[in-house]
Each structure stands twice: as structure tokens, then as C-alpha cells.
Amino acid sequence: MVLNKSLAKVVVGINETANKFQSSIVIKTDDKTIDAKSILGLTYTVLNSQSFQVEIHGEDEEGAKRAMSHVFWKNNLPIELV
């Protein structure tokens, strides 16, 4: 898969959403574990994965879970919160 303009917007949207929160936000997919606040890691993950498990821990995790679910849903990406 190639990083086109629309896919780049998805990556930036996920990254910007994650960076609004203090909580740790980790995306697990296949055999990779990526910090959602890392734009480089996200780019690779979104390009090469079909499903995503998102694990969130911290003081603002409830808000982070809602926001991350929304950004994945908005971009038609399957998400499982763990």
C-alpha cells in the first residue's frame, strides 16, 4: 500500500487525537506494538494492517478512548479497545 494524501490525513488525524491526551495510547496489530503519538510508527502501521487493537491507560483514558474510537470509526478503520 502506498501513502497517498487521504491515508496521510488518517495518520495525522490519529496522531493529533492521541497527542491531546496524557494517557499512554498503544496500537497493537499483527506482531507490532506502536505508540499512537509516534507519527512514523503510525504511518507504517496504518499502511500495513487491517485491524487495530488500542490500549489506553492514564488519568484521562475515558476521554481518550472515546476520541480514539471516533477517529478510527470516522476513517473506516476497525478498532478494538482492550
How would you portray this structure in words?
A hairpin with a 2-residue loop joins strand 1 (24-29) and strand 2. The model has no long low-confidence stretch (mean pLDDT 91). The protein has helices at 5-18, 39-48, 61-74; strands at 24-29, 32-35, 52-57, 79-81. It has 82 residues and is α+β, with helices and mostly antiparallel strands. A four-stranded mixed sheet has the order 2-1-3-4, covered by helices on one side.
Summarize the topology.
Elements: H1 5-18, E1 24-29, E2 32-35, H2 39-48, E3 52-57, H3 61-74, E4 79-81
Parallel strand pairs: 3-4
Antiparallel strand pairs: 1-2, 1-3
Helix/strand class: alpha+beta
* Range of strand content: 15-25%
Helix-strand pattern, N to C?
HEEHEHE
Order of strands in the sheet with most strands: 2-1-3-4
The overall strand count is: 4
- End-to-end separation in angstroms reads 27 Å
Helix content: 40-55%
Summarize this structure briefly:
The chain has 82 residues and is α+β, with helices and mostly antiparallel strands. It contains 3 helices and 4 strands; from the N terminus they run αββαβαβ. The protein is 46% helix and 23% strand.
